[in-house]
UniProtKB/TrEMBL annotation:
Pfam families reported in the protein's UniProt record: Ribosomal_S15
Protein name: Small ribosomal subunit protein uS15
Function: Forms an intersubunit bridge (bridge B4) with the 23S rRNA of the 50S subunit in the ribosome.
Gene from which the chain derives: rpsO
InterPro entries: Ribosomal_uS15 (IPR000589), Ribosomal_uS15_bac-type (IPR005290), uS15_NS1_RNA-bd_sf (IPR009068)
Lineage: Bacteria, Bacillati, Mycoplasmatota, Mollicutes, Entomoplasmatales
Similarity comment: family membership: Belongs to the universal ribosomal protein uS15 family.
Keyword Magnesium assigned: no
The species this protein was found in: Spiroplasma alleghenense
Gene3D superfamilies for the chain: 6.10.250.3130, S15/NS1, RNA-binding (1.10.287.10)
């Protein structure tokens, strides 16, 4: 779960303004932050099945947003991949 301050910071960095939460880059960045937090949690709590399911769901959502960017604006896709240090 992303804290309000961290979420506002991500929105400010990746959005066009402070209230721009619908932009694909913002959603990808928020999901990436959640994925990193859940990954750390699951390294400590290996048998937490509910969190594992939540992690898989967030990874799938991020993949859909990335595919949207690939189809519509490949330059924005390359920029967000480089900025977030994702492997694609």
């Amino acid at each position: 779960m992303v804290l309000k301050a961290r979420k506002a910071e991500i929105i400010k960095e990746f959005g066009q303004n402070d209230k721009d939460t619908g932009r694909a880059e913002v959603q990808i960045a928020l999901l990436t932050d959640d994925i990193r937090n859940l990954t750390e949690h699951l390294q400590l709590h290996k048998k937490d099945i509910t969190s594992r399911r939540s992690l898989l769901k967030k990874v799938s959502q991020r993949k859909h947003h990335l595919n949207f960017l690939i189809k519509n604006d490949f330059e924005r896709y390359k920029a967000i991949i480089a900025k977030l240090n994702l492997r694609k």
